[in-house]
Amino acid sequence: MADISEELFKFNPWWESSYSTNLINRKQYLDFLERNLQNKDIILITGLRRIGKTSIIKIFIAKLLESIEAKNILYVSLDSLALEKYSIFEILREYRKIHHLSLAEKVYLFFDEITYRKTAHQELKNLYDQENVKIFASASSTLIIRDTHAFLTGRSRAIEILPLSFGEFLHFKGIKTKAAEKYLLESYFEKYMRMGGIPEYVLTNDISYIDNLIDNIIYKDIVSYYSVRDLSGIKDLFRLLMERAGKQMSINKLAKVIGLSPDTVRRYVDYFVQTYLVYTIERCGKLNERIRSPKKLYAADVGMRNHITGFRDKGAIFENLTYLKIKHKNPCYVYQNGVELDFFFQETVVEVKFEKEIEAKQKSLFDQFPAKRKILVQGMDDYLSIK
Fold first, then answer.
1. Neighbouring-strand partners of residue 160
2. For residue range 120-136, what is the model confidence (pLDDT) as tens digits?
């Protein structure tokens, strides 16, 4: 198994020399990993491809090396072609052999991109049950995470890495502004609305990176994995969804526009959701209302959306950013008598009107809606104040 050994040394440079990284810290995610370091739970790190999962793992490993011996930390990217024929158990056995580690000696395991390891959930469970390990695993598909999380009930915790927040965007750009320079902050916020929060794109301004990312997800993660034959159809549907981000999504109307069957459109949308390209939210209400009503759809990143549609309809972009900020609260949308309010969660109703006044019918519903908190988001200050 010399090829395993060689690959493991490539992935783990700290075994042979000191290790540091100049990657930019994303504090809230690193804090989560730190808080869960001492418990036994398997930590599942999820999110869009190239959203920064690997960077967060590498920064966390650098921090661990301050207090844990290098030989007790293993990082493996499981989408490595050199390792695809080996099971996780075989990789771990070779790792223990390299460092003469007994089964009793605790090790910290980082498995990057378990997405298409079909037996990953079983192997992780067996490791958890049988060995002295702390496991961190990342994936770019909700399907594998959902299945793994269910299989590991009581044994795992998951965190999703989202695009950069506005504060992180400023941090990545090296921008510091004073409170008195609000006009500068507003100009940077417009830039944030335009670029979105894909870390590498924010750092490089290379628009081809977004092109490449979209193609990788659609052709590698979706077309190849799900054996999709209609390449132009699925790409056209993605473009159409970006055009309609923030709107109620009628499967039948989409099917008619794109020339696909409703079942095919429904399946393709599910693939986009599973790979974190889009998010959907349900209508608030009873179960039958939620099932019968169309979902609203949002882009995973507004920079991606803008690359497809152009930088237009700032209201839709601003609503999309607002959704991403409150996504962790699992909002639904309100729809009563033909009038819609954007979000409701935890006794809070939110209506987004970028630099516009709320319409009379919406204001009436907004004022009468039984919520303890009511938030009208009309600009940057309102957006930043949402907690």
1. 46
2. 888 998 999 999 999 99
Long-range pairs for 178-187: beta carbons < 8 A, 24 or more residues apart: 185/380, 186/380
Q: What is the residue range of 290's domain?
A: 229-311
Residues 241, 249: Cα–Cα separation, whole Å: 8
Can you tell me the distance from the alpha carbon of 56 to that of 6, in angstroms, rounded to the nearest whole number?
A: 24
Interval 318-340: pLDDT, tens: 999 999 999 999 999 999 999 99
Tell whether pTM > 0.85.
yes
d(CA 340, CA 298): 16
Phi/psi of residue 160, each to 5°?
-100, 130
Residue that terminates a domain, selected from 131, 160, 189: 160
Residue 368 in any domain: the answer is yes
Instruction: Fill in the DSSP letter of residue 277.
Output: S
User: Are residues 91 and 83 in contact, defined by beta-carbon separation less than 8 angstroms?
Assistant: yes
Contacts of 174 (CB under 8 A, 6+ apart): none
